[in-house]
Each structure stands twice: as structure tokens, then as C-alpha cells.
Amino acid sequence: MGCSGCRGRFNSGKVLSKASVFFTMLLIFTYFFYCLSGLCDSAPRTLYRQDNFIDDGFEDESPHSLPSNSIPVSNTFGAKRFPQALIIGVKKGGTRALLEFLRIHPDVRAVGSEPHFFDRFYDKGLDWYRNLMPRTLDGQITMEKTPSYFVTKEAPARICAMNCQTKLIVVVRDPVTRAISDYTQTLSKNPGLPSFQGLALRNSSSSEIDTTWSAVRIGLYAKHMDNWLQHFPHHHFLFVSGERLVSDPAGEMGRVQDFLGLKRVVSDKHFYFNETKGFPCLKKPEGSSRPRCLGKSKGRPHPEIPTEVLQRLRDFYRPYNQLFYQMSGQDFGWD
């Protein structure tokens, strides 16, 4: 009788064990079914801190590395959305610094590298582009920056085809200084490059500026803006001074946050000025071992340019600058 009772309890235990295994397998199957159906994104969302930064040294990264701030790679919360705001230019104006300053904000999720979708990879399609974006939660803004958009003739129409309500940020800098910085960067990669004056002037016996050289052409801000204003109204643009981004980063960031409809989170407390580099750096954030500063390539010494060449360039740019001041509603004081 006792042994019969033991066998009964043993058989009952096996039945319960099989039932538990079956129920567990059913739960796992149901979970995978929901995930494969794309319903996992609708699960309760967890907020993430943005104290840990991607340490890219403020340098341009590979177009396909695409970090997504502090949201873990395995994160499946939120959704991938087209960017509501773009930093569209200009090259060597301060776009990398602006992007990194913005990424401090908890309501900003930005692609770390330059996707170049609207100038180089448009044929890959909008779904490909959206898939490059980091996942965002409700109330967060998706952003990316590609400075070459500003000088790409097709970019405004293509961006408007995605969303004509997109906010556009243009970081500008004295076009003469910008051209020299552009040349200095190229020279560091190609030491055999001709002299700056040899590229800026059509020939040695002429003082005529060669506008076919990209370093000169990019600085014709008014001409490029005319193309953009054919597709977007003026209030969709914010013009950021590259010079003030260095001298008063918190002040310029206040304007940027207002333009994006964000609470002013990024402020003076986030910056300190690096006397050696001559640029502002981000103070060490919580959870980081060191401050975040501009990369080694930033602040590299510029070559000596003959005074007469600089003056010729300033005279050349002056009417374009004046027109751009009218277009932007700001006097950047480059003259």
C-alpha cells in the first residue's frame, strides 16, 4: 500500500513536470512569434541614460559604423524613424562639434557618422536610410549630419520628398578661414598638394579666384542657400556661427535647443575651454574616464598664406557674404 502510494506520487510528479515543460515551451514560442511579428517594439519601454558617449574623438567615422548613442546595440525598444532634423553643412564649419554637443541631450538620438544618403547613396532607397537611424522613444528627436548636403544640388528636393517639415541646421564659418582649414585637412592626407594660392588662383599671373576648386566653391553660401530656399521656407533653417560655437558654445547650443523644441539641458556646466587646442571640450560625464575633446586633427596649424592672396579672397567673398547675411537674417561679421 505504501509502495503503491509512492508510485502514484512519482507518476503524478512526472505529469506535472511534463506540463511545466509544455507550458514553458508554449511561452517561448509565443514570445518568438510576437517578436517575429514586429510586436516587440510595442512592449513597455525603458528609459536610458545618455551619460556614456561613443568615443569617436569628434572625428568623422566610417559611413557604415553608425553608433547610436548610449542605447545598447541589442536594444529593441522604440522605433527607427526618419530624422526630424538634419545638420546639412558646412564642411569644416563646426558640424562635428555641434553634433557631439547635441548628443549630450537625453532627447536627442543621432547617427554618429555621416550617412551621405541624400548625396551618395540615394539609390539605396528610404528604407535603407531609415534602417541606419538609431531607435528612439516617444518625445526623442532623430538626427544626422552630412555637411556635403549643403552643396549638393539634388539634396533639397530629395529631403523634401522624405519630409518637407524637416528642420535644417547650417553651421557656417568665415569662408576664407574655412577654405584654409579645408585645404589644411586635404594637405595632411596628400602632402604633395600644390600650394593654397596655386589652387585658389586661376594662374600665377592672375588674381582671379578659381571657383571650380571645391575649397573656394563651398564658401559661396548665398549661392547654395538660394537652391535650398526653393524647397524649404526660411523658418525651417537655423544658422549657427562656427566662430561662436567656439567662443560661446553654451550660447549657440541654447539657440539650437530652442530651434529643435528641446528643453535647454546643454549649458555652461557641460563645457570647458582647452587652451592647448583652442577649442571647447565637454567636461567629463558621469560614467566616463576622461573628458571629451575634439580629435587630434582639430586645431591643426594652418600654413602661412600670402597677405595679398587672403585680401583677394576677402574681396571676392564680400558681396556673397553680404547677400548671405540678408538671407540668414544675421551679420556674422566676417568683413
UniProtKB/TrEMBL annotation:
Pfam families the UniProt entry points to: Sulfotransfer_1 (PF00685)
Keyword Transmembrane: yes
Record domain Sulfotransferase: where: 83-318
Active-site annotation: K92
Covalent S-S links between cysteines: C281-C293
GO CC, alphabetical: Golgi membrane
Assigned EC number: 2.8.2.-
TM regions (residue ranges): 21-39
UniProt cross-references to InterPro entries, sorted A to Z: NST/OST, P-loop_NTPase, Sulfotransferase_dom
Membrane topology: Single-pass type II membrane protein
Compartments it resides in: Endomembrane system; Golgi apparatus membrane
Keywords: Disulfide bond, Glycoprotein, Golgi apparatus, Membrane, Signal-anchor, Transferase, Transmembrane, Transmembrane helix
GO molecular function: [heparan sulfate]-glucosamine 3-sulfotransferase activity
Positions contributing to 3'-phosphoadenylyl sulfate binding: K92, G93, G94, T95, R96, R173, S181, K298, G299, R300, P301, H302
Family: Belongs to the sulfotransferase 1 family.
Protein name: Sulfotransferase
Source organism (scientific name): Neogobius melanostomus
